[in-house]
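Consider the following assembly input.
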Amino acid sequence: MSRSLKRLLVAGAAGFIGSNFVRLLRHTRPDLEVTVLDKLTYAGNRANLLEFEGTEGYRFVHGDICDAGLVDTLAGQADAIVNFAAETHVDRSLMDPFAFIETDVRGTAVLCEAARKHEHEVFLLVSTDEVYGEVPAGRSAETDAFRPRSPYSASKAAGEHIAHAYAESFGLPLLVTRGSNTYGPYQYPEKLIPVLITNAVDGLRLPLYKDGSAVRDYLFVEDHCRAIAQVLFDAPGSGAYNVGTGAETTGLEVAEAVLEIMAKPKSLIEFVADRPGHDHRYALDISRITALGWEPRVTFAEGLERTVRWYVEHQEWWRPLKSGEYWDYYRRNYRPLVS
Ligand code: NAD
Ligand code: TYD
């Protein structure tokens, strides 16, 4: 099938994945009208979408997905919503859980309500593999139970539960993507890969929790965005789709690969105190989305090389972010390893 959407409301698109997603849509579907709604939190940056300002079929609205009046107005002017808006960083969720509950749970509910009221063709919720919780062995299938363990993943899971309740109770046409750890250009330098790269540029230590052995499935942002677009336009009916590569990489392997690409010494790696409740491994069964015709195109080696190059060449983008509040957060977050 192919959904012929004309006017899309994209919430949270001034952030990392959302801005890459809007870039993909503007290039591949120039006739699709896109309205971005974003609160511009510390993680949102209007400059991420600067190239589209003033172009036909693009509009930026500064606002909050929890603002029911504003969301209702914008939803009335669209035939579908894609929601990226969220508080997204696990370590920050340990410091301020309520910000996550407000946006990731209540904000998702406000969007569901507006999509239901305006009888949208589809509501796509961008979720995460973290809703399954830690996966010591095997791979998570879409039918697995949620066992979130951090305030971030619990609020994403709760937001998903609300959306599923709207689908069951009110017939909301709901699509969900559960992506794995995404990396690439425009990622705020608090997640692992941009922390490692930007620290390495400045010759600072590369902090790894405990012994750097936690495993993630690192997905290049362009691949993740293509998957979301494919689900949005081609997935039949309602349903959830895991999105990942199937590869497993430890934090230590990531740090060593970054240093290798940048020709910096491995001695820059510093093991620090573990994250409380650190999920040691996530792993996804991706057979449902590959059956839809999607597969990752960018290997980790190529994606990391491209990402390192982007951060090296776009220091004007990330240097202003690594100041003031950022270092307060950094000092609160990273503690020496006590063995
Ligand atoms: P991000 O932190 O870079 O961006 C989040 C964006 O949401 C920002 O632009 C921010 O200003 C906006 N926002 C936050 N609260 C808002 C509110 N109340 N109203 C309107 N806008 C608000 O996040 P990201 O990494 O791009 O993640 C996007 C989505 O993808 C999130 O829902 C996240 O849970 C999900 N996801 C992320 C990853 C990853 O590895 N980054 C992996 C899987 C899923
Ligand atoms: P992160 O990018 O925060 O994503 P996730 O939401 O999956 O936790 O972290 C990825 C992995 O890297 C995770 O195992 C925690 C670890 N990590 C570090 O070792 N050091 C760091 O500075 C960060 C931010 C993460």
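The chain has two domains: 7-182+218-243, 189-216+249-279+300-333. Ask yourself how this observation constrains the way the partners meet.
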